[in-house]
């Protein structure tokens, strides 16, 4: 195995460690994971089309990635600036705002995908 391939595997294992750490310690990340699991189960139940699966998968990935970045920003600030500071507040509030925007976007996608399916069922 070449050095480059080995570095890719090591890099992937570091990334996987990050996801495991977030799952272990971050309640919000766990809630997003459980929601993603519920949405995927609903997708299987409703036998979604490929386009609808694409919308759902992109929305889920978007929320999880933004939540991971928000967690990284929070941890970095707690490490670099553990004391209370107005700049720290603005930075954390902005990162939390990004999570809210991603979650609201995903909620709209979820409604657009599942409302017609539910409508057809009843
Ligand atoms: N060092 C700080 N200085 C000023 N305000 C802060 C500071 N740390 C946090 N805050 C304020 O408290 C809010 C919550 O911060 P916190 O770090 O607890 O994140 P959280 O959203 O509760 O996430 P988690 O539950 O994952 O820790 C921030 O959005 C910010 O308004």
TrEMBL record:
UniProt keyword ATP-binding, yes or no: yes
Just give the chief location class. membrane
The catalytic residues are 67 (proton acceptor)
The Gene Ontology terms for molecular function here are:
ATP binding; kinase activity; metal ion binding
Location in the cell reads: Cell membrane
Q: Please name the InterPro entries in this protein's record.
A: DAGK (IPR000829), DAGK_sf (IPR036945), UDPK (IPR033717)
Q: Which GO terms describe its cellular component?
A: plasma membrane
Name the UniProt key words of this record, in alphabetical order.
ATP-binding, Cell membrane, Kinase, Lipid biosynthesis, Lipid metabolism, Magnesium, Membrane, Metal-binding, Nucleotide-binding, Phospholipid biosynthesis, Phospholipid metabolism, Transferase, Transmembrane, Transmembrane helix
Q: How does it sit in the membrane?
A: Multi-pass membrane protein
Q: Name one GO biological process term.
A: phospholipid biosynthetic process
What is written in the cofactor note of this entry?
Answer: Mn(2+), Zn(2+), Cd(2+) and Co(2+) support activity to lesser extents.
Ligand binding (substrate): 67
Positions binding a divalent metal cation in this chain are 26, 74
Superkingdom assignment = Bacteria
* Residue positions binding ATP: 26, 74, 92-93
Cofactors per UniProt?
A: Mg(2+)
Q: Which residues cross the membrane?
A: 29-47, 53-73, 94-115
Q: Which family does it belong to?
A: Belongs to the bacterial diacylglycerol kinase family.
Name-wise, this protein is: Diacylglycerol kinase family protein
Source species, please?
Lentibacillus salicampi
Q: Could you read off the lineage of the organism from its UniProt record?
A: Bacteria, Bacillati, Bacillota, Bacilli, Bacillales
